Amino acid sequence: MVTTASRTRPHSLSIGPDRRRLAPGRMVMLLLIAAVYIGFGTLHLAAPERLLPALPPGVPSPAEMILFAGACEVAGGLGLLIPQARKAAAIVLAIYALCAWPLAAWQAMSGVQVPPAPDNWWYHGPRLALQPVIAWAPLFAAGALDWPFRARS
What we know:
Elements: E1 13-14, E2 21-22, H1 24-46, H2 48-51, H3 62-80, H4 86-110, H5 121-141
Antiparallel strand pairs: 1-2
């Protein structure tokens, strides 16, 4: 006899030891998010001095703060790729994205240029408006939440 708990759908992928499945769309989203965080984190680590103008005055140890942020982004991106760490990494990345929101607002309002990012509202406006989506995306992709696409019973 096959129980409901032991059935698997052939179009899903494993996300951890509990054998729950991650749909292919979520897996693609998860891989893209991981690549973006690893890529941007690597840029933070490779050239922290280029990002110094993006920090508001008064931030203690700004170069070290940028290196720490880069390390967090790389670790979070890698964590998304490890099934046992996936949900925890998604939660940390969501919190990180929300914590970066005030920094993005300061950068937009101060008119600080951080190449190659443009210094105009065609860049800053969508970035600020989409920051909650950037926080939500790893949570959804990792299966930490289903909102707003909860399956109907």
